[in-house]
Amino acid sequence: MVDVRRVDLPGIGVLHSFDTTDALEISVVAHRAGVRDLLVRHAQSDEPVVTARLETDEAHQLAELLGGTRIIESIADVDAMPGVPIGWVSVHDGDAVDGRELGSVDALGDGTVQVIAIVRGDRVHASPAPDFRISAGDMLVAAGAPDRIAHAFRAAGAPTAEHEA
After folding, report:
1. Full-prediction pTM beyond 0.70?
2. Are 51 and 94 in the same domain?
């Protein structure tokens, strides 16, 4: 698995970067205004080899060509909002929430945590309805106080949140 570094850039947005096996560093600066700067440089250099500014629709198209989903952008957008902590967790075979409708999981509907999206494969189901059936392989994305998110995921029988922002 690739380690992605995240750096807040006050007044600008968020920088995400990772190193490739070819000794390149690929970085994306997600500006609060919506544009993305793509930078590629040799891992040991300060000078980029390639830079490109992408408008929102261009960034979406590149993500689709690379086989990504838009949930990471959505998470980054929510994560960038002050005072809106989020967390997410993957559902595995046999988890207590596997096969259940979202609205039937009391721990996720107590009002302290809001499931804001469910990612299934390469599709994002934003604001899922209470009758949305959770399946193994889904990623639940929730907003709320970090301790309430962790509590809700544990009480729902899902593993501990994989990320809390």
Report:
1. no
2. no
Burial of 16 (0-12, 13-18, 19+ CB in 10 A): middle
Query: Encoding tokens for residue 102?
Result: 């979202």
Q: Pinpoint the alpha helices (H) of the chain.
A: 56-65, 71-79, 146-155
Handedness of CA 79, 164, 15, 12 (dihedral sign): positive
Asked if residues 125 and 118 have their Cβ atoms less than 8 Å apart, the reply is yes
SS3 content of the chain, % helix, strand, coil (to 5): 20, 35, 45
| 64 within a domain of the structure (yes/no) | yes
Give per-residue pLDDT as tens, 41-74: 997 887 888 888 988 888 877 877 776 544 555 5
Question: What domain range includes position 147?
Answer: 86-164
Tell me the sheet residues that pair with 36.
30, 54
Domain assignment present for 77: no
Amino acid, single-letter form, for residue 135 = S
Answer whether 4's CB lies under 8 Å from 18's CB: yes
Residue 28 lies in a domain: yes
- Per DSSP, the residues of 41-52 read EETT-SS-SEEE
99/148 same-domain check: yes
- For residues 41 and 97, membership in a common domain is answered with no
